[in-house]
Amino acid sequence: MGNSYAGQLKTTRFEEVLHNSIEASLRSNSLVPRPVFSQLYLEAEQQLSALEGASRVDNEEEEEEGEGGLEQNCPPNPYQMHPPPEGCCTTDGFCQAGKDLRLVSISSEPIDVPAGFLLVGAKSPSLPDHLLVCAVDKRFLPDDDGHNALLGFSGNCVGCGKKGFCYFTEFSSHMNLKVTTQPKKQKHLKYYLIRNAQGALTKGPLICWKGSEFRSRQASASACSSSLFPPLESSGLPAPFPSEPGPGTTPSLPLGAPQAGPASDHASLTAAVGPAVFNGKDSPKHQPLVKHSLSAAPRPSALGILSNSGPPKKRHKGWSPESPSAADGGCPQGGGNRAKYESTGVTCMPQVGLVGPASVTFPVVASGEPVSVPDNLLKICKAKPVIFKGKYSSHGHFPYLCGNLNDVVVSPLLYTCYQNSQSISRAYGQYGASTIQPISEEMQLLLTVYYLVQLAADQVPLMEDLEQIFLRSWRESHLTEIRQYQQAPPQPVPPAPGAVAPVTSAQLPWLAGLAASSCNDSVHIIECTYSLAEGLSEMFRLLIEGKLAKTNYVVIIRACRSAAIDSCIAVTGKYQARILSESLLTPAEYQKEVNYELVTGKVDSLGAFFSTLCPEGDIDILLDKFHQENQGQISSSLTASSVTKSASLDVSGTPVCTNSSTQNLDLGSFEKVDFLICIPPSEVTYQQTLFHVWHSGVLLELGLEKEHVTKQRVEQYVLKLDAEAQTKFKSFLQNSFQNPHTLFVLIHDHAHWDLVSSAVHDLYSQSDPSVGLVDRLLNCKEVKEAPNIVMLHVTSFPYALQTQHTLISPYNEIHWPASYSNGVDLYPENKKYFGLSEFIESTLSGHSLPLLRYDSSFEAMVTALGKRFPRLHSAVIRTFVLVQHYTAAMMAVSGLSQMKNYTSVETLEITQNLLNSPKQCPCGHGLMVLLRVPCSPLAAVAYERLAHVRARLALEEHFEIILGSPSSGITIGKHFLKQLKMWQKIEDAEWRPQTYLELEGLPCILIFSGMDPHGESLPRSLRYCDLRLINSSCLVRTALEQELGLAAYFVSSEPPLEKRARSEALESDAEKLSSTDNEDEELVTEVCFETGSTSEKRSPVKRERSRSHDSASSSLSSKASSSARCGESPAQAQPAGPSRGDRARSPQPCGPAEEGRAPGERQWPQAGRGPPSAISRCSPGLAPQPDPGLKTGQWSIQVSVPSLSSSGSSSSSAMPAAGPLVLQAAQCSMTKACRRPPVVFLPKLVYDMLTSTDGSGLPKAASLLPSHSVMWASSFRPLLSKTMTSTEQSLYYRQWTVPRPSHMDYGSRAEGRVDGFHPRRLLLSGPPQIGKTGAYLQFLSILSRMLIRLTEVDVYDEEEININLREESDWHYLQLSDPWPDLELFKKLPFDYLIHDPKYEDASLICSHHQSVTSEDRGTRRKPEDLYVRRQTARMRLSKYAAYNTYHHCEQCHQYMGFHPRYQLYESTLHAFAFSYSMLGEEIQLHFIIPKSKEHHFVFSQPGGQLESMRLPLVTDKSHEYIKSPTFTPTTGRHEHGLFNLYHAMDGASHLHVLVVKEYEMAIYKKYWPNHIMLVLPSIFNSAGVGAAHFLIKELSYHNLELERNRQEELGIKPQDIWPFIVISDDSCVMWNVVDVDCGGERSREFSWSERNVSLKHIMQHVESSPNITHYALIGVRKWSSRTGSREVREPFSRCHVHDFIILNVDLTQNVQYNQNRFMCDDVDFNLRVHSAGLLLCRFNRFSVMKKQIAVGGHRSFHITSKVSDSPMAIVPAQYICAPDSKHTFLAAPAQLLLEKFLQHHSHRFFPLSLKNHGHPVLSVDCYLNLGSQISVCYVSSRPHSLNISCSDFLFSGLLLYLCDSFVGAGFLKKFHFLKGATLCVICQDRNSLRQTVVRLELEDEWQFRLRDEFQTANAKEDRPLFFLTGRHI
Predict the structure, then answer these.
(1) Which of 923, 1335, 1459, 1538 is at 20 to 30 A from 953, Cα to Cα?
(2) What is the rounded CA–CA span in Å between residue 118 and residue 107?
(3) What are phi and psi of 113, to 5 degrees?
(4) Averaged over 1840-1845, what is the pLDDT?
(5) How far apart are CA 419 and CA 390, in angstroms?
(6) In angstroms, what is the C-alpha Rg of the chain?
(7) Bridge-partner residues for 1821, per DSSP?
(8) 53 vs 941: CA distance, rounded Å
(9) What's the angle, vertex CA 1465, arms to CA 1463 and CA 1469, rounded to 5?
């Protein structure tokens, strides 16, 4: 098989002998191979064959961990040890002589170790926890580099002292190792043993067996589950692209980047990472490929003992058994763990913490013949060739290399790609598709050759492209089967596969050669017969001879007669090889490499080269010469002029956050909002955020600070995540712990930054302390478990937070701004957001100038220099070239025109504009050039060089050069500081710009360094964004979009930006502003704009609690709480976020002032003035109403709060239209800048990636791996699509990406478990610079208002009506201080027929003999349609005695509600309850739903048996522990909003509460109120009104009273002692009040009073303890009004109508029924009937009930629609009746409802004389129907002995007979007198009874009827219409 130790075997002869003998022994039949070779089974080969054959990763240290002693890839027969000699010891841990060998036992004993021997620890599978000590000759152990171990063994037993064991087999028997496989020293000798300071023997470093090292790396190389090279930290992994790569598919991480990722992205992490899921099926065979995430290579060890010291000494739970070494884990910036060069020693950066040269050579471990790498390879080739291993069979192995290993890179990624693609077909295994074959190895290789052939010279191969090609090829070849399996159910017998002629291995070289023949030798095929080693040697020879100069790729194929093939591919093209090898460096290594090159002076050669370019010698000499000539002649051309104020528009849309967890976030339990904003450690971002918070006024609004907030106070709320963050964060946690009723919002801004797991930090604590800081702080246990901390992640690039393991529920994602904004334009008309999609679109044809460009001459120079300086990193070369270009350009512009040839056109354009812009503007405004240099040392070099050149050219006062790095603030020269102060009118001597926004208008080059931007906003004067130096390994989607996000911009779109206007909405590509779809109903985002011209000095507006006089116009929300009413005063603008327009104190463009202001921009207050003292956001429309959007278990904020912004006094019209001024203004760079976004220069590679599209039309960039810290879950994944919304993209990433082991979400939850989401995590995402900061600050203020809103409620607040109509006779109950009514006094009071309840303001007046009403008396009327919409409400704070809806959760009422975690969801039982009722002529069947917890209120025939009755207490009971009267609440359409939680209202007292629901709503009510008793009405009442519910409640209660009397009579209780009262309460009664009256004396008229909130229990117990209570039929309370005067509460009791909350005596009212057909006014009708029956109605005036305004359900749930057509046409009340037998449209509504509605609006058609004729009312017999407010009625009862008003002096204008019964006779009607021409209306159930009634009542004697006077309600026959007959009095 071959030796895997490099450089060890000297002769080929010996090697052949060795090979042959090992193969012979493997094939021999004897069970025990000959021991002479037993030590030569080198594991790397076995591992390799295991990978190729069984695809199983043999876990080397499984034995070490005791996880299984059996190696599965050993030779087929199990190994059998020789039986031990008779009588010897066989105990584990002891030698055969019986001596203890365990380290723990003999660590302190002296051990004799002969010279040349070392003590080592051996592992025994039977003793996993122990090391056995033995002495081994060190010649047979590897040296520090893992080389030069002699084959064979020599060892001594330290127990018994026996020496001279020559075979490890024999030695292992002596030590009783008891192995099940062939004993090998590499497997069992694990650790060196060393003496510690105390002299005790302890476990030392791992023995560096290169075989095992090779094996674990090999395994891990195949680990990448689908992205072939999960990228380095900042190198991107382009995802697969289906389309044939066009020019520009050259991403940076092309074929060879191994996986890398911070920290423990480690070789295998087998234990931790589950296998990838392929369409839901685990693929066992594929597991090895999935489990590992990194190809590990040996690294220099920080321990300094060995180059590879093995796993960390203490196994961490995230460690895989195969992790090569502790040092490998690296640190999150990428320190160690990026093993890159898999089997060749390659220049690797030393680990963090090591100093020294950046190249450490490692030997290679492999097998087969050695191939020598030529010494001068790099010199000749100008690039390091990258060799990709391809396929190799079980006997062929990859050759090992020796010699100059620094100059080659070997990678296993292609092999992994091939393996991955073999697993594709397993995805269809679930269909039983066993015949679908994977793509053949030959085909894979052939397709690879085809792919390489069609790559252009400037393209780099991409693994993802290859994957997609394999996938497409496989799909096409199996299309029919796939279709069949996708459509049909699994079939037992799959069809035969399609006949595609396979490629044989013999044909392969020929076909490959044929394919390569067309490519002009860019792909060279080498065919070898014996092994790949020949081919590699041949390739090296050709390279040295220069014969491959034009060749970019060499494909080496060994195809033999057997089926298997071996292959590898070498990338030899200089451009490709350089990019591929550099893409293997992590950001940290890249920085170190660059640093090393700078420090060691390697770059000097580059500088020297540049000097030679200049025609007149060294550039510096030229500069000095120029300086001397021109000194003193150049004066500054910068001047200043006045600045005009300007206006701004503000975008404020606020996200809706829902929380769909069972751990409800109970907003009701919080009183205020506090927050902490965490930002990356960037000084500029920190200052920028402070500014936003300070000027947003949010601190004042949340009540966190008083007036005049100082900057220092604001600093408490912003946390920079640096070394000092921990203490500040601890105090935040402490604060949250001490204030459980404050909701703390932890805002994690720029949330895609630093997702490194804190486990990484624990592993490598010596590394940077900031590693994993975000995870340590924000994901700590205290934050996760705190019920009052909500975390809001805010980012423009949310992809890394959208993985299979994310903690954020998809319902808690807010994509902002939403693309649908309810018809409101997202931005004001003249503003347009310019993001990535617009930049890309500008490159398409038809646009005037592309905004994305690349610089071809720059790229050409870089490529040329790359070949000239192959050892320098291309970042260094690019930086030097660019600086050289800028230098030459500055010189050319300054007059040295000969330098034009030494720069590029693009750089010259930038420099010319930079220098000329201030000259064209009267104020001296200039433009900004952003020069992005990610690597800090290079940025410093660029800064120094450019500053030097600027000084020599005397341009110091023309433009500033600023070095911007995250760690430091902004430094600018005095001259420019003076300019800025002048422009911005700042007088503060100490002022310095702290954010880039404050540099608005400053001509400058901003050299922006740092590996990632941290959210810094740039001013609108930014004109050029030079990204030519961004690391081309930034090709992951996040890194790329982050860099381009720097240029995102709001532009003024008035002058057309392009030739064709872009009208469509932002596209759904990488940058689209899409929304959550409508499937998430709660996620509503409304955005409004309003501009108002207000004075420049804004007057602060205090937030006031205004009473809402308007109710909501939407069904969901009511008027903004605590907002000043619109238009009361100028409103302060709310910043929308760090949009480009948010400039600190910007100077004004000199042109028309309004142009180019961004939404979200505003005038910043002058320095020193401080923020405005208070801020009001005026809401003309709706503001958050908490309830509607709050589904159970979710919280949601629904809002539209337009922030009015201050529009300055100068709009463009205010400017004089003088020509010259306008012309001048047009030249101002700032004015121009606001009309167009910056121009962006990119590296060619990135440019191609952005501008080429994949199959779905998306830019390729969007299909890249989304982030460094994640990897694809599978290569078998669809592509992102162009039409995807942000929500769909999120779901895509959640399905197809998994976090790397170093990601903080790694291992956070079992995949796909919904409960894995954290209930209080939200994610706000939106494009860069769109205004997210303003959005989340707005969110805070809305949340705060919402909390206030949750503790407040809108209650009806209306004065009683018809007060003035009451005559002041003897109406008064004069005993003012009586707590209860005196029965005798009360009986003497007359009944007040007038309705005083304001909800009946539009109802007909009821006349009694006391009144003579004129129409004027009735007050002003509202329009009918305004009823219920315009009723006045007041905002009230909920008291502790309020009734609540389903959104209230608190600890006390959890059990009451039935949602207590300790209780099962309450079980309920359904009980039928029947009673007969003669009026309905049938038995009524009702159903009770009774929860188990409420069964004690009922009597059953036996436990669980028939329901017999509901228990009633006794009149004589005096207990204060419970409420005697059962409460019934009829309800419809209000399962969420009805106030059924009476726990607090009843003050915890026991009570019986029954919800009365319709049958079709039973399930939904039961779901929301599982612990409530339900009374379910029969299905015939599904469309009935409230009258039916009242009727059944009363009848049921009377029936129950009878049953209880009978039951308790048997117990000796008198029938009259059973409690006869019930409560009928509306579902909107929210609070109850009592008036405390202080009477001066018994009869005194002077008294004072006050009102307070009390519990319902207090009121009920007071009423229930009234003396003689059983003599009252109906008891009620007053309706609350803020306008209640002393007149209303003066008399404690009234005899009048009662509504809403009544206490009903079912015994006394036995013979008075509610009308079960009624929809409206049924309570008035019932009150009149009760009174006419001679019964007492008493209203307690000192008690009042507050009714909440609920916008849904109730009587509004009845919609009258047409029965036939589906057209949503409005049907007006006039259409509710029609002539019988006509062709009128029938309506789908109950006849009774149509009748009542018609009479309410159109009764004047029947009673024309009665209109406004209150002296002559309509006589209404036995019923009260509302005939509208302009007609009065007089109610009389036809019952004998009933109380009626005296009608003798009335002349009636009409008669209304409604369903009159037999009590109404002809004689009864003859007693009444009518006006001539009075009208009659008779209403009956059918035409027949109509005629009978006319005859029976002898109506034709006095009334005249005509045929056409008959009508019916507009119902179809089956709906039983009502019929009317009208007539005139003769």
Answers:
(1) 923
(2) 15
(3) -115, 115
(4) 92
(5) 10
(6) 44
(7) 1836, 1857
(8) 53
(9) 115
Contact 322, 60 (CB under 8 A): yes
Average pLDDT, the chain: 75
Contact in structure between 540 and 374 (CB atoms under 8 Å)? yes
Residue 1912 CB contacts under 8 Å (≥ 6 apart), including other chains: 1777, 1778, 1779, 1780, 1921, 1922, 1923, 1924
d(CA 904, CA 917): 20
**Contact residues for 606 (Cβ-Cβ < 8 A; gap 6+):** 865, 869, 872, 876, 877, 880
DSSP string, 616-638: TS-HHHHHHHHHHHHTTT-----
**1232 contacts 1020 by C-beta, under 8 angstroms:** no
Residue whose tokens read 């090697």: 15
Q: In 3D, which of 1897, 696, 685, 708 has the Cα closest to residue 1336?
A: 696
Q: At what angle do helices 441-453 and 413-422 cross, to 10 degrees?
A: 130
Bond prior to 205 in cis (omega within 30° of 0): no
Could you write out the DSSP letters of every residue in 28-55? -SSSS--GGGGGG--HHHHHHHHHHTT-
Kindly state the helix (H) or strand (E) to which residue 863 belongs, with its residue range: helix 856-868
**Tokens found for residue 1025:** 């964004």
Pull the structure tokens for residue 203. 């476990």
Diameter over CA atoms, the chain: 142
197 Cβ partners below 8 Å, 6+ apart?
none
Whole-number Å distance between alpha carbons of 289 and 283: 10
Tokens 């000239």 sit on residue: 868
Residue 571's alpha-carbon distances to 256, 294, 338, in angstroms, are 10, 21, 21
Which among 83, 126, 78 has a CA at the least distance from the CA of 102? 126
Query: In 985-1061, which residue ranges form alpha helices assigned H by DSSP?
Result: 1037-1045
The H or E element containing residue 1656 is: helix 1656-1664
Q: Rounded to whole angstroms, how far apart are CA atoms 483 and 66?
A: 47
Query: What is the Cα–Cα distance from 1141 to 1146, expressed in whole angstroms?
Result: 9
Beta bridge partners of 773: none
Cβ–Cβ under 8 Å, residues 1354 and 1628: no
The distance from CA 238 to its chain's CA centroid, rounded to whole angstroms, is 24
Beta-bridge partner residues of 1322: 792
Query: What is the rounded distance in angstroms from the CA atom of residue 462 to the CA atom of residue 1245?
Result: 12
Question: Tokens 């995402």 belong to which residue?
Answer: 1325
Q: How many CA atoms lie within 13 A of 660 on its CB side?
A: 16
Mapped onto helix, strand or coil, the DSSP state of residue 427 is helix
Written as six digits, the tokens of 170 are 């024999």
Amino acid in position 1509: S
3-state DSSP assignment of residue 796: coil
**What pLDDT was estimated at residue 1859?**
93
Q: Cβ of 1377: how many Cβ atoms within 10 Å?
A: 12
CA angle 1510, 1514, 1519 (to 5 degrees): 105
Which 3 state secondary structure label does DSSP give 681?
Answer: coil
pLDDT at 1537 (0 to 100): 93
Collapsing DSSP to helix, strand or coil, 739 comes out as coil
The residue ranges of DSSP E strands in 1049-1197, in sequence order, are: 1049-1052, 1087-1088, 1090-1093
Structure tokens at 152: 């064979």
CA distance 1572 to 1650: 35
Angle formed at CA 1721 by CA 1716 and CA 1722, multiple of 5 degrees: 25
pLDDT tens-digit map of 1363-1405:
887 665 555 777 788 899 999 999 999 999 999 999 999 999 9
Instruction: Say what the alpha-carbon torsion angle 1784, 1789, 1790, 1791 is, to the nearest 10 degrees.
Output: -20
Q: Flag the least confident range among 887-896, 1252-1261, 1475-1484.
A: 1475-1484
Cβ neighbours, 10 Å, residue 34:
12
The 10s digit of each residue's pLDDT in 1052-1071 is: 765 444 333 333 333 333 33
At residue 689, what are phi and psi to the nearest 5 degrees? -70, -40
- Residue 405: is its pLDDT beyond 50? yes
